[in-house]
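Why does this matter for the project? Reviewers at the last site visit asked to see concrete outputs rather than summary tables. In response, this paragraph embeds two records directly. Each consists of the residue sequence and, immediately after it, the corresponding structure tokens. Nothing has been edited or filtered.
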Amino acid sequence: MNLSINKGLGGRASKLDLIYLGYLVYYWILLSFYDRSAGISNAMFFLMTLPAVGLIAANYRLLVRRNVSFVFFLLYVYLFFIAFVNVVRGQYDVVVDSVFFVLPVIIVSRLNVSVFVGHLNLLFILSVIVSIFFYHVGLGHYGYLPGHAGQHVHMGYDYRISLFPFLAPVYSGVFALSIFIANWFNRAKWYSVVLPFSLYYAVLSGSRTVWVVLVFFVVVIIADKVSRFFGRRVLYWCVIVYVVLFFCVSYYPIVVLSIIGSVFGENSSLAVYLYRDQYVVTDDGNIASRALIWSEYLSVFKLNPFIGAGLQGSNSDWDLLSRDWTEVYFVYLMARDGLLVLFFYFFWVLLFINVLRDYDLFRLNVLFLLIMVMLNYGSFSNMYNFVFLVLIFFVFGRVRGENSIRRVVV
């Protein structure tokens, strides 16, 4: 992998750039104006997936190029084995989910398309306007000021705000933070206005994922100011510490909650925020469902370690996992795909190491954000999710600010 940064090349968008900008705008419209609380109708699912299928069909030649790096070869191997195993099982949904997850990464990394931060700044500003308008006409689940929220108030989350009226604030927080990072490192049109507002929406999203990445961002900036040589070692250790903490919180909720309880008391604000349940420890001493499901993924993986359980399993625990839970998505993939998912994991590990070696702080932060999102939320990770597409374009695309072009070559 290598990174090229060319100064003084703002430039204008080509026709191809505008086509893919239209692709992003289309999914921004669906995310901003469609209320999914009652479920997704067949017609809406068709509208969501058709452009994504068209993108794959229009760029199929990019998928069969011979000069494939080892990093991306891992993705091809993962997709091949997942397709083979689940076709034999007759679980075609897994194949489709994997295709819509993996192919956008490969296609965007090979597209000769520029993403203008200024264009995304405009979409962010429009999102702010939409969130304000929808609140004042009585629509949407969240507002734009603390106390506007109409959902999760009983859990102490009434301060949460969202750019997207009908979606949980985590979508808003991830998009706002990605825009904040993009403008911090790539000054673009309206950046002086977008920077404070994007930070505002990111922080008040109340998302644990967003806050973790914000802390990482601060550490990156401070470490870089102190010393580039010192900074790389600090960042390596930050990632190692986070991975250890993440798996401790995910797999050992009882231990974590007992430690928190001994210091702050049972059902403290920290425990409630960490596991997102109002009463994490119930009256009979059991762990609430949100904490339980994280450790249950590991149990399913142990019963089906080689090729996973797919979407159906014979063990009793799978009834819990077969619902629409997507927390700790990487661990969910372990339960679903077994050891085959190691190809997928190694891709992101090697990619992160390469970006850190190139010391591109912009892509280091957005890649860390993308990985954190995929660690926690399966609903993000598909080709027809606007926020996921923005992150993919930021990591793998040619990103243009006012005075520079960033291009990553893998």
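We now turn to the second protein, recorded in exactly the same manner.
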Amino acid sequence: MSFVDKAKEFLPGIGTVNLIATWMTYAVIFIVVSLAAAGLAWWWANNRKYYNKIIKFEKVGNTFQDVGVDWAKIVRIGHTGDTVHYWRKGKLFRPTPQIQTGARKFWYFLREDGEWINFGIGDLDRIARELGCVMVITDIRHAKEALRKNLKETYDKPGFLERFGAHIALLSLMFMFAIAVWFAFYQMTDVLNSMSTLTDKVGQFMETANGILIKIDNVQGGGSGSGLVPAMIGLGLWRRR
């Protein structure tokens, strides 16, 4: 067997290897893309569970201040339907809170012993009444009203267009309408004058034609006249009226 024959037997084997390598590459790419899509879908579905907003307060300088935000999901425990909250950032399991300060929003403060306590604002009117706070002070209300009126007159003055814009627009519309009516009447007068002139010209033409026909009739009939001449004379007389 010559070298050429051996090369011909070996070349199909190389083509098969290339085909297998190509399909393996496609398979690896498909597996990688599928795993990435599955990972993104799992991450998105898992993050959707953390829809409860946790506002955390801590004591800073003898006052409680907002120190951060966390998100919690509901986790069911046991077979009795009990649930707890799991904080994503804090990695904490907390009892399901009962006090909401908004739609799926809960406030917690860190107590001195390190325990996170769910709390709310409460009924401020009731607390103020229990503390004996005066709800309305007449002098303060009068001063507030005077200050509001002064600020309104000083900084809330309407501009020229705000005050007279509607009147200017109405006057402009009336002016444009008057111009349109005047132009229409002016053009109508010209049309009527033109029609009157045309009518006069037609009358003159009819009179001239009538005279010509009378002369022709006299020449042809020797002055006896014909049936056409009286008709034309009558038309001329009607025009003179």
